[in-house]
């Protein structure tokens, strides 16, 4: 599947799986708008993409603090200044907080975790919805987590992270129903912990992917490309995964 006609926004694209998404969307030919909390982080990934031979006019770096409504609005305005539509919004940003003890996180950690994952996802989606509605085939992809599944308890993540992911799950569930009549597909992924191999390394193609191995970033990216590549009568609402 080639994506040369797609314009894609990815939040938290400065590292980890966000970087992976940025590199893989660009490798399919998409025009990508990358955000990170600092412009420097987004620029580093932009430079990596350009080093692969991509057109500089189709790779854009932006700063966006998902906990700051003004920053989210500025990010959306900066993208709107460059394009009249967005075809795919990937809500990847969400701060992780470790710790099974509720008291292990400071109040500031709790607030930031909830704000980036829950509030940030709502604000970004709201800010970019006008551009998505101008697309002939708009898709919203949200990286939730197995922690957003009801009854999930196998992660060592802090309860605040569970709360943020549960909020994302509730938001995307209702949004899927409410935006369908406008042709917007809302796709959520609920992965457990997974191996995120560097797409620019040999391990990307050589990673073991048997039934006994942990889930890989490769498979998550494949799921996203599969979902957005379906005809517009096919609304894949969510992907849920078994945990090894």
Structure, described:
With 244 residues, the chain is an alpha/beta fold. The chain is 41% helix and 14% strand. It is built from 7 helices and 7 strands, in the order βαβαβαβαβαβααβ. A 7-stranded parallel β-sheet has the order 3-2-1-4-5-6-7, with helices on both faces. Helix 3 (69-80) packs parallel to helix 4. The longest helix has 26 residues, at 107-132. The mean pLDDT is 96.
Strand order of the largest sheet: 3-2-1-4-5-6-7
pLDDT averaged over residues: 96
Structural class: alpha/beta
* Weakly predicted, low-confidence segments: none
Shape: globular
Q: Largest sheet at a glance?
A: 7 strands, parallel
Strand content of the residues, in percent? 5-15%
- The number of helices is 7
Distance between the termini: 29 Å
Following the backbone from N to C, one meets helices and strands in this order, namely: EHEHEHEHEHEHHE
Radius of gyration, taken over Cα atoms and rounded to an integer in Å? 17 Å
Helix coverage percent of residues? 40-55%
Question: How many beta strands in the DSSP annotation?
Answer: 7
Protein name: NAD(P)-dependent dehydrogenase (Short-subunit alcohol dehydrogenase family)
Family: Belongs to the short-chain dehydrogenases/reductases (SDR) family.
Organism: Streptomyces avidinii
Keywords: Oxidoreductase
């Amino acid at each position: 599947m080639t994506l040369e006609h797609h314009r894609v926004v990815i939040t938290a694209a400065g590292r980890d799986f966000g970087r992976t998404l940025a590199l893989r969307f660009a490798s399919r030919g998409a025009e990508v708008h990358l955000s990170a909390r600092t412009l420097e982080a987004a620029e580093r990934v932009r430079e990596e993409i350009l080093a692969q031979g991509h057109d500089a006019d189709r790779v854009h770096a932006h700063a966006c603090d998902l906990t700051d409504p003004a920053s989210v609005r500025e990010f959306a305005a900066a993208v709107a200044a460059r394009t009249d539509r967005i075809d795919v919004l990937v809500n990847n940003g969400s701060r992780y907080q470790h710790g099974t003890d509720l008291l292990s996180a400071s109040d500031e950690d709790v607030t930031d975790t909830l704000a980036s994952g829950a509030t940030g996802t709502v604000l970004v989606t709201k800010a970019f919805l006008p551009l998505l509605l101008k697309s002939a085939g708009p898709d919203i992809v949200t990286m939730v987590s197995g922690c957003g599944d009801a009854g999930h308890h196998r992660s060592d993540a802090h309860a605040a992270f569970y709360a943020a992911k549960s909020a994302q799950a509730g938001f995307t569930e209702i949004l899927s129903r409410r935006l369908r009549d406008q042709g917007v597909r809302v796709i959520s992924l609920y992965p457990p912990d997974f191996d995120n191999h560097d797409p620019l390394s040999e391990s990307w193609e050589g990673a073991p992917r048997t039934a006994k191995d942990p889930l890989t970033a490769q498979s998550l990216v494949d799921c996203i490309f599969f979902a957005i590549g379906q005809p517009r009568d096919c609304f894949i609402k969510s992907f849920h995964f078994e945990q090894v």
